[in-house]
Design a protein that fits this description.
Number of strands: 19
Strand content: 25-35%
Order of helices and strands: EHEEEEEEEEEHEHHEEEEEEEEHHHH
Distance between the termini: 53 Å
Structural class: alpha+beta
Radius of gyration: 29 Å
Shape: flat
Length: 385
């Protein structure tokens, strides 16, 4: 590993100009956070209702034969999923019975890492020390060394010599039923597929002349001492295995099922009961809901903090004062974001879950009072100029 350090100074005036640009960005983040939070609550409730309705309707059925009595209905099957023949990668002589196969191409390359450290200086200026570190590692994408801060001595080849490849069985079925694309896309339990001696021996001559077999991969160069530009090629596969699905029976196909509030197309690797598939879907909905809530809150908090940016920069004429003012505004912005997020979420839930909505509005009111109190105390401590 080697490194390079760069120091850039920004004047107080330049920082102040940047802070006003930040105000525009902050305003956009603040405004957009409201519809995102509102939409998310509606999405969450609709998804919960869809799953509740589906759980009432679903019927467990046998994978084979197809029972026409359940046509157009919501069914659950847990059985072995298989493809319709081997998947082939003729460029490397691979042929395997699998649902999906990925060719993974990696090249040994230079990687740039950047670490920044910012220090305030008297008078409101700012010094940023940036350390660029360079090391070598395997990567499955071509790293553009022309974008490096120090490209000289850290040159990478322009492209991977072989493209990655994803193979999917034309027809994946479970018993007598074919799965539609909505289900096939959820089959993602890839496992390493080591290259065997037989596969290596059956590879094209030009491949065997360029690569050796090492640790279950085609490997160019010395595996113990790789050089920049060396390549290794490996494979991942999803073999036939048991899966559980919940969807609409349409003839001999399973496709998404439409309810009044959404769509159901559930799949679980390893199989499982209908109850377990719906439980997984409910857990996923909860995680997505909280992820978007936290994202909306963070966007609101950052947006509000950016609105106060110019005031903080003005106070940075004395670095200690700027730090105190910045921390105070960050706390006020955080409390305001908690309050406004809770109000938005509470109002969205009020129509669906009144008790939860009222509770969230109570939290919002408490956060607003705390924010107002802190702001008043801050003005009192500042006193007259």
């Amino acid at each position: 590993m080697d490194e390079f350090r760069e120091v850039i100074r920004k004047s107080w005036g330049e920082r102040l100009g940047g802070a006003f640009v930040g105000v525009v960005i902050g305003l956009l983040m603040f405004v957009l956070s409201f519809p995102v939070l509102w939409w998310n609550e509606g999405r969450s409730v609709d998804r919960a209702r869809t799953l509740a309705e589906g759980l009432e309707l679903v019927i467990p059925v046998a994978a084979d034969p197809v029972d026409p009595a359940h046509d157009k209905g919501l069914i659950h099957i847990s059985d072995r999923a298989v493809g319709d023949g081997p998947l082939d990668d003729p460029a490397f002589g691979l042929s395997v019975d699998a649902l999906k196969v990925k060719r993974v191409v990696e090249m040994y390359q230079w990687i740039e890492e950047k670490e920044e450290r910012t220090v305030k200086e008297a008078g409101g200026s700012e010094r940023t020390e940036t350390t660029y570190r360079y090391h070598r590692e395997w990567s499955d994408r071509a790293v553009d060394s022309a974008r490096f801060r120090i490209a000289e001595g850290h040159r990478n080849p322009a492209a991977l010599p072989f493209a990655p490849l994803a193979l999917v069985a034309p027809r994946i079925s479970i018993g007598a039923f074919a799965l539609t694309r909505d289900f096939v896309s959820q089959i993602d339990d890839y496992r390493e597929l080591p290259v065997s001696d037989a596969v290596y021996a059956g590879a094209p001559e030009n491949v065997r002349g360029r690569f050796q077999l090492s640790a279950g991969r085609f490997h160019q160069g010395d595996p113990a001492a790789p050089q920049i530009g060396d390549v290794r090629v490996g494979f991942l596969a999803i073999h036939p295995q048991e899966i559980g699905v919940v969807g609409r029976q349409s003839g001999n196909r399973i496709e998404p099922y439409r309810t009044r509030t959404g769509e159901i197309a559930l799949l679980r690797m390893g199989g499982g009961s209908a109850d377990s598939l719906f439980a997984d879907a409910r857990d996923e909905n909860t995680l997505i809901t909280w992820g978007i809530r936290l994202g909306g809150f963070a966007a609101m908090w950052i947006g509000l903090a950016l609105l106060f940016g110019p005031i903080k920069i003005l106070a940075d004429v004395l670095p200690v004062l700027g730090t105190i003012v910045g921390a105070g505004f960050a706390m006020v912005a955080g409390l305001a974001a908690v309050a406004l997020s809770a109000v938005t979420i509470g109002l969205a839930w009020l129509a669906y879950r009144p008790l939860i909505g009222i509770g969230l509005l109570a939290v919002a009111a408490a956060a607003m009072l705390a924010s107002a109190y802190l702001a008043r105390r801050k003005r009192q401590l500042a006193g007259p100029a």
